[in-house]
What we know:
The protein has 659 residues and is an alpha/beta fold.
Amino acid sequence: MLSWLLELAKTSSKTFEAISSEGSENQVMAKVTPRHILKLSREEKRKFIDSFDQIYSDCDGVLWTLMDPIKDSGAAVKLLKNEGKKITFVTNNSIRSEKGYLEQFKQAGIETDIDNLVHPHKSILLYLKKIEFKGLIYVIGMTRLKTILKEAGFEVIDGPNELIEENFAVLMMKIFEKYPVKAVVIDVDFNLSALKLMKADQFLRKDDCILISGATDMTLPVGKFGTIMGPGPFLKVLEEAAGKKAKVVGKPGKELAELIMQDESIKDSKRVLFIGDMLEQDVKFGRKCGFQTLLTLTGGTTSADLLKATDPELIPDYYADSLGDFIEFFGSLECKNSLLVIKDSFLFSKNSTIKMPERKLKNILELTRDEKRDFINSFDTVLCDCDGVMWELTGPIRGSGDGANSLQEAGKDIYFVTNNSNNTDEVYIKKFMDIGFELDLNHIIHPVRTMISYLKKQHFNGVIYCITAKAVENALKKAGFRVLSGPREESKDILQFLDDILDDEPVRAVIIDFDVTISNAKLARAQLYLKNPDCLLIAGATDKTIPLRKDVSVIGPGYYIDILSEVSGKKPIVLGKPGHELGHIVRETCGIKDPKRALFIGDALEQDIGFGMKCGFQTLSVLSGISSKADVEEHHAEHGAPNYYANSISDFVKFFKEV
């Protein structure tokens, strides 16, 4: 789709100067008053949707925030495509890998391929090819950028990456180096330092050294955590210190506009719509290209920011609360094709955020007598978490055993699905005995059991490296697998560290689960094993927090799983909640034919309710663990689940009395 970019060096079609002169009316204009797309008249809506054939859209703040899809963004993209609009995505974010982008698009319910994505790393490479660059490049950026450039045949240097003494002699030695650098490239670099900027400045003082920038954002949004400083301030330092203007191949750069406008499918720039969430990066860029512009208020710009904008280049033609407004937009037009899409079941797939009109979240004790009968008759199998539902770290949750017994006495088949492998089967038997429930060991599913089941099903016969509790190691050994672990002692120096992590063991699987002794050395050793393309990365619990009490939690294994996945480039096989692989095992183990006739009870929204949703089960949250009523209500409003809630599983005792 974007292969046209590769022909840039040979293309002599319209330049940015020509574009600017064609769109000069847009460059000197009276202040535009943006229109909300849902406040347009029926005739204006029809005219608007017919006024463009092609869409360029930002990603962060439009389709998702950090990692979470923005509600109905994927459905809106499908509706626009169904109306015949060609959509290409243009982002300033190269932090996420292209593989990561494909996963993120998939999570948002958007079908696309990587050729339909333009990001700074790609545009930097294409710009260098366009100008037929020859020479050494000094890069201030992420490792991924350096790799892309090296793989394309460019010679790259970076650094310094180590801390130095507060000594001017050492400082000078580090920054005054006589490499024949012909270009300094700067993009997002979380390890950017004053030393790197000083070194770049020295290179840029040479007349024949050019400055190239990817993203120029002053701040980077990081979801609910707000924003962090972006590369923009550091670019300004280099421009002012070296007295050179950067060639900007990220939004809103002139050079990126030139690259984009080489697309032969753009016959008339006025028939292109640019969608974004930032005034400086997105709206300004769209106007530079002569496109129509639409701002969404789901990212870096608020309605107050929009009202305060006075520069015509920063004011969009249209705006919307979110991209999802296109659902109501098309519904009001009653477009035949779009109505078919809205009604089509594929919009209600697991990757879509569209929901049918939602029922109000109800406490099971507040259901009417008839609703209680309908509810209890709607499922045959109960899948129940343990920690936070049956007990806390400090002891049993009052009445939990009675609640489970009441469900069993009502003819429900109960299985317990937990992410906690720290307990042995013998410990679980005792814990259930303490709450007055007789446990059948075939009715408890935890990561070590699913690991063994998965490995045996795969006929695995290699060596396993464990970053887990001792209970997991022992269970795997008992099942007949050869297991390695460690190192468990702190390294005294770098030599010991290297000695600890290097070995020649033929490891074919790294298993990571909750481990209170996790260390840098353990993760480093795992990383080395995972360099082998045949080595699997298997995860048990993915919880990022482990609750000790209702109001106390500690860091869980989820963060460390992410680290190994990132450094190895491997997606983990998740055999704990909310992993897809676990879903298959649970359905097979519990003999579940129709997932709608199973009820999942849990306290953790991501692990328990999220897992139940993925599997197609009904879901019930209990407030006896880590989630408050407000948390549950918010999750229900955003995701349509849980279907029900209760203060505790013990509420089923009263529930059955009232039925």
